[in-house]
Design brief:
The chain has about 220 residues and is α/β, with parallel strands linked by helices. Helix content is about 30%, strand content about 20%. The structure holds 6-chloroguanine.
Length: about 220
């Protein structure tokens, strides 16, 4: 999976990409991330990318020119990839949607919004999908793009090192969240709190049964 990230803050991704499990995934080449600095595409001599909104109102709006040129250039590299605009006004990202993105596409173009928004003409002519990661407002789309990259990448075979895709079955579509059984590791007793005997028994049938009974 190749992610193209269109952003005015490419530096925000450096820590995320270099410190997480995504570093290994990139090393193994199953995940690739290409950062595109929208400001590089500004025809303005001061590399300006925003302006005041027509009709008035608070805040600034991304001007269409740098976005058009940046998106056009990236679409040339990835003609079949959808342009996904990250905005709090978008459709809410769910695990089902994450699975679809992973299955349907080999590349994704993630456009990170800022200010009050982007010029509507960009959305009308170049954006395929608007996504939000939840009902709260972030100052930019970068954190949301990282969420998309993380959630999609962990479904890419080989990206995590362990292909335990069947564990995804514990994601409950009905509850809208992941079902988990309690996890324990060494030591068997910590500050008087003991690990359930059955988990130390080596009886896989009994362990399976205990875990099913303790899913929540
Ligand atoms: Cl995708 N962008 C911004 N700016 N805020 C958000 C969001 C996205 N999803 C939830 N809040």
């Amino acid at each position: 999976m190749l992610f193209h990230i269109l952003t005015i803050f490419p530096e925000m991704f450096k820590g995320f990409l270099n410190e997480s499990i995504l570093k290994k995934a990139q090393g193994s080449k199953v995940i690739k991330i290409h950062l595109h600095d929208i400001r590089d595409y500004s025809a303005n001599k001061h590399k300006k990318v925003d302006d005041t909104p027509y009709g008035g109102g608070a805040g600034m709006v991304f001007t269409p020119q740098p976005l058009f040129d940046c998106i056009k250039a990236v679409k040339k590299l990835a003609p079949k990839a959808p342009v996904v605009y990250l905005t709090p006004a978008g459709k809410r990202l769910t695990q089902t949607m994450v699975e679809k993105l992973n299955k349907k596409f080999e590349q994704l173009i993630l456009l990170c919004g800022h200010y009050e928004g982007i010029d509507q003409r960009v959305i009308d002519s170049l954006v395929d999908m608007e996504l939000s990661i939840g009902d709260y407002v972030l100052s930019g789309g970068e954190l949301a793009a990282m969420v998309v990259i993380d959630a999609v990448s962990r479904l890419v075979p080989g990206a995590l090192g362990n292909d335990e895709s069947h564990r995804e079955e514990t994601f409950s579509k009905k509850l809208g969240r992941k079902k988990e059984y309690p996890h324990y590791t060494k030591p068997a007793e910590f500050r008087g709190m003991k690990v359930p005997e059955v988990l130390q028994s080596g009886n896989h049938g009994a362990i399976e049964k205990w875990r099913r009974a303790h899913l929540r």
